[in-house]
Amino acid sequence: MKAADPSHDLRTRWGLLLIYWLLLVVAALWLRPLIPVDETRYLSVAWEMWRNGDFLVPHLNGETYAHKPPLLFWLMQAGWWVFGVNEIWPRLITPLLSLACLYLVQRLAQRLWPRQPRVAATAPWVLFGSIVWLLFFTLVQFDLLLVFCTLLGMLGLVDAGRGKSAGWWLLTLAMGLGLLAKGPVILLHLLPAGLLGPVWADERPGHWGGWYGRLFLCVAGGAAMVLAWAVPAGLEGGEAYRNAIFWGQTANRVVNSFAHREPWWWYLPMLPVLLLPWFLWPRLWKPLGQLKAFRKESGLRFLASWILPTLVLFSLVSGKQIKYLLPTLPALALVLAWLYAQSKPSRRRRMPDLAALMLLVSGLLLLAVPYVAYGDIAWWIPRISPLWGGVLLGAGILALLLPEDLLPQEVIRVASAAMFMVLCVQSAMMGAGGGAYDLREISQQIRRYQDQGLQLAYIGKYHGQFNFLGRLQHPVKRLNDRTVHVWAKKHPKDLVIINDVKGKLPLARTVYATDYRGSPKALKILQANEYIKLVAGS
User: How many alpha carbons lie under 13 Å from residue 140 in its C-beta half-sphere?
Assistant: First the structure.
């Protein structure tokens, strides 16, 4: 009998993976609007750069925006230069980056274990099938761009550890792109593994002083790339913007984060969440006894040098979110893929297996959510259709009944179940409450008011959520409870926008109202003088 061709197996797996990728992308574009406030804010920054013809200094609502470097905004504008200003291209960037990351994680597995093609075949599926990865798969965020830069840098490090000079150039490029993508945080992901080169590099690249010298040059080269933007941007943006991009934002996030503050141990209980659903699969944990091979396995030593220092460093940073560990997820996926490659399948199929259990449990939960969470989270929760819960239950029952030879390989089966589960949950939630997150209509209404010569002001913290969707030509004035009275006296006939979550303002006195997030008719537009009368009357 002729042995199977590993390259043919990889092509077959990639064909199915591409189908899944396309299915998720089409579903997101069709079902899900841009979610405020992050997605709408980032597109608004890109829109203002495009509208003003200023590709050096990002702006949001007429003010300099120093919270993020410009690489993602540049990618958005590059697509607009080719296709014109549209919403689809910016929403395709993250899925395309995700696809590139799946390819890079396979290449990294091939570098680390060239004689174990099973690891390379499995690693993209483990990463793709991780619940957290699937949740960020189509979001317009900076995180997968940072993951891409991290994987690129790790490929460079592995090549450099084998004496290939091109690896240093790749690492330099990754550091520069990472700095332009999300700032100095890329160094927390790449530098520890580089500094621990003596721990994992099998082929000693001569004297280690040369290794650290080249590593320093890579950091300097990456810094030169970001300075080529930051110096002229700082000169153009003014002193406050210059201070923010060179020091303020990084210092605030690391020393005294202004948001998402958590205790140092917060990431430890989050690791099982990050590893779902694979954390629940006993087969992956059986080969843990083989970790005595750690000293012999340079690939595992490399991944440990990537994962452990990063986890420690991020635990010391005050601001914590699970997405901050996304650049570490490919390393964890590689460890799991290696464990899977060492494991042996059970002779008898267990009923039900993990994939079937995931589908059955998620189906039951989706059926129960409208009753368990009735009105507590959002007003639209009771409107969730039982159809999608039934679809998941039906898929789980089908997975139980089908013969083994008609089902795909186990790791693909689990990843497929995770993908199908996320797809059905997204469809259910967007079908019930997607309109409460869609700001296109109110944004276009704001543009019409501006075209009529009216000024609009937003009461509260404004994140620019209307600027791109309405293609606004003028900023929206930001007001608070103290300044709104002064502004209203000067602009009695102009309009104010308020997020009236508690429904205190009567609909009859508003000129426009729409559902927003968890509350019906929460976003309201009314004349400034009417708002003052209503507030005074209450």
Answer: 28
DSSP code per residue over 38-62: HHHHHHHHHHHHHHHT--SS-EETT
Q: Let me know: does 321 contact 327? Beta carbons within 8 Å.
A: no
Asked if residue 256 has pLDDT above 50, the reply is: no
Greatest C-alpha distance within the chain: 88
- Check whether 5 has a pLDDT greater than 50: no
Cα separation, 521 vs 501, whole angstroms? 8
CA distance 60 to 66: 9
Cα dist from 447 to 31, 36, 64, 453, 485, whole Å: 24, 18, 22, 10, 24
How far is the C-alpha of 96 from the C-alpha of 92, rounded, in Å?
A: 6
Is residue 446 within 8 A of residue 476, CB to CB? The reply is yes
Tell me the pLDDT tens digit for each residue of 262-282.
788 899 999 999 999 999 988
pTM for this model (two decimals): 0.92
The domain limits of the chain are 6-32+66-342, 354-436, 439-537
Three-class SS state of 514: strand
User: pLDDT at residue 343 above 80?
Assistant: no
Q: Distance (Å, rounded) from C-alpha 531 to C-alpha 278?
A: 53
Please check whether residue 25 is in contact with residue 92, taking contact to mean a CB–CB distance below 8 angstroms. Answer: yes
Alpha helices of 286-378 — where are they, by DSSP H? 298-316, 329-342, 354-372
Computed from CA positions of residues 477, 435, 376, 392, in that sequence, does the dihedral angle turn out positive or negative?
negative
Alpha-carbon distance of 306 to 119, in angstroms, equals 18
CA torsion sign for 354, 417, 517, 144 is: positive
Tell whether omega for the bond before 184 is within 30 degrees of 0, i.e. cis: no
